Amino acid sequence: MSAVLEAEGLQTYYGKSHILHGVSLTVGEGELVALLGRNGAGKTTTMRSIMGLTVPREGRVKLFGRDTTGKPPYRVANLGVGYVPEGRKIFGHLTVHENLLVPPQTKGPWTIETVYRLFPRLDERRTSKGGRLSGGEQEMLSIARALLLNPKFLILDEPSQGLAPVIVQEVMRTVGRMKSEGMSILLVEQNAFLALELADRAYVLSDGEVVYDGAAATLADDRARMEQLAGVSHAAVDIRH
Ligand SMILES: Nc1ncnc2c1ncn2[C@@H]1O[C@H](COP(=O)(O)OP(=O)(O)OP(=O)(O)O)[C@@H](O)[C@H]1O
């Protein structure tokens, strides 16, 4: 399997604060990899380091076999990397459909019609203003917009954050469908059990270091280890059942 992402020994700082202490991770073609960890573990900083939003002081980032270390975010995105950051940055005053017309047209399987098929809720709400959508619908709209750029690799930062359990399930099912369509995905989640149900492999970060790197199923089956490493709350466990 060829690698979509190879990050090696990332050391990332915000000013004098040393946040990532040698983070290495890979995502293979067609793989869904979960990146887990408690609040403040360094998950978002890892994404930012990969995207070139915060340039690591040491270490290397390779995307599709090309060294992108220190390259600006638009160059990284242009290689075919979609990034859906935390916090659903959609246009509240535009309708769903208008939001989907914002990204430039790109070649590939994802068109406005195919994303409506993936997200029937958005199809039903074509004419609703973004600002009037529920949290879950806004998350779907953020993901839909990223898909329209036809990325080869999608990075999702905590898509379940702040959503009701039933909506979390729906968003996660959609992530599963994108994987089955062949998309390579790095899924950053606090909701560890749900992420592990979908993921092939997982990394757990703690204080800016990788403390688990292995099969998702192995970690999911070891609940004590999960709680110790990722600080998984019982609420997250309950959502699954
Ligand atoms: N702009 C910043 N300047 C200084 N420190 C920051 C900045 N952004 C984040 N940090 C710190 O870096 C550490 C890692 O934060 P990061 O956002 O990467 O964690 P996270 O695992 O994504 O957590 P969360 O789930 O809360 O988003 C935290 O201690 C945080 O306080």
Automatic annotation (TrEMBL):
InterPro entries: AAA+_ATPase, ABC_transporter-like_ATP-bd, BCAA_Transport_ATP-bd_LivF, P-loop_NTPase
Keywords for this protein: Amino-acid transport, ATP-binding, Nucleotide-binding, Transport
Pfam families assigned: ABC_tran
Keyword Transport applies: yes
GO molecular function: ATP binding; ATP hydrolysis activity; branched-chain amino acid transmembrane transporter activity
UniProt-listed GO biological process terms: L-amino acid transport
Domain ABC transporter, first and last residues per copy: 5-232
Family affiliation: Belongs to the ABC transporter superfamily.
Listed PANTHER family: ABC TRANSPORTER ATP-BINDING PROTEIN, HIGH-AFFINITY BRANCHED-CHAIN AMINO ACID TRANSPORT ATP-BINDING PROTEIN LIVF
Name under which the protein is recorded: Amino acid/amide ABC transporter ATP-binding protein 2, HAAT family
Organism: Acidiphilium rubrum
